[in-house]
Automatic annotation (TrEMBL):
Molecular function terms, GO-annotated: DNA binding
Keyword terms: DNA-binding, Transcription, Transcription regulation
Pfam families in UniProt: HxlR
Lineage, highest ranks first: Bacteria, Bacillati, Actinomycetota, Actinomycetes, Pseudonocardiales
Gene3D superfamilies the UniProt entry points to: Winged helix-like DNA-binding domain superfamily/Winged helix DNA-binding domain
Protein name as annotated: DNA-binding HxlR family transcriptional regulator
PROSITE patterns: HTH_HXLR
Organism: Amycolatopsis magusensis
Length: 126
């Protein structure tokens, strides 16, 4: 017999509520990887992240800054130059990111097979 789910498992006071990285937040992971070798400008980040809109990238960078994962530096130049750089807290996420990348590499064939099987089942239902 399965034990019942704890009604307080998603309690608002739970520390997991403030965790800045959520599984599936692809933009944060990509920003972290882009900043691994040092500071970058917004326009530099957009090149490899061509699938993200400027608005979403801006929101992602602001959220990461708020969470202490990166710093935004504005240089007093004309036009102003802005760079984003990881903090030690942001850099501490490379271990978990590497674990996720390794998991994906090890399980990609299974994942693709499961998706294809699902799509075949859905095609029959429709």
């Amino acid at each position: 017999m399965r034990r019942p789910l704890d009604p307080d498992m998603f309690d608002p006071a739970c520390p997991s509520r403030v965790t800045p990285i959520r599984i599936g937040d692809k933009w944060v992971g990509m920003v972290l990887i882009c900043l691994e070798d040092g500071p970058r400008r917004f326009s530099e980040l957009r090149v490899p992240m061509r699938g993200v809109s400027p608005k979403v990238l801006t929101e992602t960078l602001r959220a990461m800054e708020r969470d202490g994962m990166l710093v935004r530096t504005v240089y007093p130049e004309v036009p102003p130059r802005v760079e984003y750089e990881l903090t030690p807290l942001g850099r501490s996420l490379f271990g978990p990111i590497e674990a996720c990348r390794e998991w994906a590499a090890n399980h990609l064939p299974e994942l693709i097979a499961a998706r294809e099987a699902y799509e075949r089942r859905e095609a029959v239902v429709d």
